[in-house]
Amino acid sequence: MIIPPYLKEGDTVAIVCTARKISKKELDPAIKLLTHWGLKVKLGDTVGKEYHQFGGTDVQRAEDFQEMLDDKEVQAIWCARGGYGTVRMIDEVNFSSIETNPKWIIGYSDPTVLHCHIHNLGVATIHGQMCLEIENKTEATRDTLKNILFGNYDAIKFASDFKLNRTGHAKGQLIGGNLSVLSSILGSKSTIKTEGKILFLEDLDEYLYHIDRMVHNIKRNGFFKNLAGLVIGGLTDMHDNTSPFGQSAEEIIANAVKEFNFPVCFNFPAGHSKDNRALIFGAETELIVTKDNVVLKTEA
C-alpha cells in the first residue's frame, strides 16, 4: 500500500465538491483551520456551483476533482461535504495520476466510494471529517486529521465495556466506511475485498430493517469471511417502524457476525457524530479489544 507523502507547512490542500453543493462562506471555518496549520488552500471550481442539490453537474464535479488530482502543486484533496453524488461522477475520473503522484484524499460517508476505489489502486486515504461543520466537532476530530496529514498519527485508545464487544487481537489493512455506500457499490469495480483486513462500518439516519438488509447483503458477498477484525463506529439516528424490528443496530450486526471469531468493537469514535476521529484507510492497523478497552493503532 502506498502511503501519500505527509504534508509540511506551505503545502496546498484543495477543496472540492464531489457531492452536494456548498458556499464559500460555509467553508470559511475549514479554510481558517488549514491556514492556522500553515497550509495553503486552493478552492475548486465546484465551490459555489449549484446544479439542483449537487455542487455542479456530474461532469463539472468530475473535472474539478480530476484537475486537483493531476495538479502537482496540490498535496491533499479535501471533500467539502457529503450527502449524495460521488458515485455519479467517479467513473468519469482517471485515477492514474494518484499512483504516480499520490496525495491524501479526505472525507467520509458519501466519499466512501472514493476510499474503496482508491484502495483497490493501492493508495491509502483518510476517513475523516469533511470541511462542513468541522468547527462544531471535537478537538480530537481536528487533531487526528492534522496529525495524519503531518505524519504525527498516534493510536486511538478509549475505555469500553460495551456488552456486544468481542475481545481479541487483529492485524491488517483498515478499510470500509459508510455501510449504505458499501452496500450500494457491491458488484462494481469499486467493491473492496476484505479478506485478512479490519473492516470499519458506520451509518446515519437509517431504518433498522435497512441496516439488517445491508449487513446481510455484505455478509452474503463475503465481507465477513476471513475478516481479521470489525470496528463499528457511529450508528447514528436510527429509526424503527410502528411494528418494532426487535433489535438495535448494534444487535443486528452482532447477530450477523456471531458465527465468526474475529474481534469486534462498537461505539468507536468515528462517523456521523460530534467526535469523528480520522483514520488511515489502507494502512496496516492493529486492533486490540479487551473487556475494558479498545486500541486501534496504525503503523503508517
From TrEMBL:
Keywords: Carboxypeptidase, Hydrolase, Protease, Serine protease. SUPFAM superfamilies: Class I glutamine amidotransferase-like, LD-carboxypeptidase A C-terminal domain-like. GO terms for biological process: proteolysis. The active site is at S109 (nucleophile), E202 (charge relay system), H272 (charge relay system). CDD domains: Peptidase_S66 (cd07025). The keyword Protease applies. Residues 13-128 form the LD-carboxypeptidase N-terminal domain. GO terms for molecular function: carboxypeptidase activity; serine-type peptidase activity. Residues 171-287 form the LD-carboxypeptidase C-terminal domain. Pfam families: Peptidase_S66 (PF02016), Peptidase_S66C (PF17676). Belongs to the peptidase S66 family. This is Putative carboxypeptidase. It comes from Croceibacter atlanticus (strain ATCC BAA-628 / JCM 21780 / CIP 108009 / IAM 15332 / KCTC 12090 / HTCC2559).
